[in-house]
Automatic annotation (TrEMBL):
<dbReference type="InterPro" id="IPR018223">
    <property type="entry name" value="Arginosuc_synth_CS"/>
</dbReference>
<keyword id="KW-0547">Nucleotide-binding</keyword>
<feature type="binding site">
    <location>
        <position position="264"/>
    </location>
    <ligand>
        <name>L-citrulline</name>
    </ligand>
</feature>
<dbReference type="Pfam" id="PF00764">
    <property type="entry name" value="Arginosuc_synth"/>
</dbReference>
<feature type="binding site">
    <location>
        <position position="122"/>
    </location>
    <ligand>
        <name>L-aspartate</name>
    </ligand>
</feature>
<feature type="binding site">
    <location>
        <position position="86"/>
    </location>
    <ligand>
        <name>L-citrulline</name>
    </ligand>
</feature>
<dbReference type="InterPro" id="IPR048268">
    <property type="entry name" value="Arginosuc_syn_C"/>
</dbReference>
<dbReference type="GO" id="GO:0004055">
    <property type="term" value="F:argininosuccinate synthase activity"/>
</dbReference>
<keyword id="KW-0028">Amino-acid biosynthesis</keyword>
<dbReference type="InterPro" id="IPR023434">
    <property type="entry name" value="Arginosuc_synth_type_1_subfam"/>
</dbReference>
<feature type="binding site">
    <location>
        <position position="188"/>
    </location>
    <ligand>
        <name>L-citrulline</name>
    </ligand>
</feature>
<dbReference type="GO" id="GO:0006526">
    <property type="term" value="P:L-arginine biosynthetic process"/>
</dbReference>
<dbReference type="Pfam" id="PF20979">
    <property type="entry name" value="Arginosuc_syn_C"/>
</dbReference>
<comment type="similarity">
    <text>Belongs to the argininosuccinate synthase family. Type 1 subfamily.</text>
</comment>
<comment type="pathway">
    <text>Amino-acid biosynthesis; L-arginine biosynthesis; L-arginine from L-ornithine and carbamoyl phosphate: step 2/3.</text>
</comment>
<feature type="binding site">
    <location>
        <position position="122"/>
    </location>
    <ligand>
        <name>L-citrulline</name>
    </ligand>
</feature>
<dbReference type="InterPro" id="IPR048267">
    <property type="entry name" value="Arginosuc_syn_N"/>
</dbReference>
Amino acid sequence: MSRDKVVLAYSGGLDTSVILKWLDLKGYDVVAYVADLGQRDDYEEIKEKAFASGAVDFHVVDLKEEFVKEFVYTSVKFNAVYEGRYLLGTSLARPVITKGMVEVARKTGAKYISHGATGKGNDQVRFELSAAALAPELKAIVPWREPEFFNKIKGRKEAMDFAAEHNIPVKATSDQPWSSDENLMHISFEAGILEDPAKKPPRDMFELSTSPEDAPDEKEVIEIEFEKGEAVKLNGKALKPVDMLSELNKIGGRNGIGRIDIVESRYVGMKSRGVYETPGAAILMEAHRDLEGLTLSGGVINLKDTLMPRFAQLVYAGYWYTDELDCLKALAEKSQEYVNGKVKLELYKGNIVPVSRESSDSLYDELVVSMDDDLGAYNQTDATGFIKLHSLPLKAEAKRKKN
């Protein structure tokens, strides 16, 4: 009797390893799908683990270039941060992973997709909203939302026991009971001992960056050149997006850049604690924002700052493939027309300090702004009428308050 086919977004980690076996035991032919987003994984090892766990097929799809060019760089153009701190590394990865999963499902004739996101997390929403937009005919099988599954596997301890029972090797151990997820933009840590927001993360948990206190005692100076808001050269050397982010990750990592430890508001309604390392993207964001100060008008900066939280919220919640986000992306692209130039930064023990910027499209006029002799570039007496006009509504309000 033929079995229905399901494409599982597979990482080889604890959750997806357990789910692969579970789906196999429930009577599905499982196609293990791995999206290569630059994570430091041994894909041959993951392939062997997938087949040993019951997979009937295995696909690795290289999505690095698309991820950085279309997703990370777009977010940088918007200077997007969620709740003021999170650079959206996981949020940006999920829609591109889903796109690849849909393509594999169509290629293999699968009727279903599946993922390892729990019923408490954001990723379930991101995967399934993206799939609904791209392939509404595909149905999702989500073990973490099925009582038969979550009543047996209540947490990471039971998941590790299940993995041991079925001889599935996994990275998580009782000594390191946290979940991690890596791509070229960042690595995230959550769950386990991190669920107590009062506890400091273990020193040996971090993977992409040295501790700021152990970073070099000398500043490292770098220069990034942008064209239309996209980083194209590092220290004068032309680099493609993937190579640019990879190199900045190394530079930022050795200087202790990009660590954050936050409590964030999940889309599903609860607070969660996450620890992130985002060295390269943190540098890109700082340099890009600095260059915009030189090349964008105050009105455009204000407009982007006003809409950025909406962009970040939509990305965080999984609404990448929507008309609303398309409109915001179009705005971001238009705003970057003149964001061309170079920014020099000093990196020192976790700090990113822009120290110079230049652009042929600069809006900065040194004569107009000069506090010395400006050779008539600016008539200071004009400010009198300017202030009078802008004070008219304030005087009217003051008069009303007296009545």
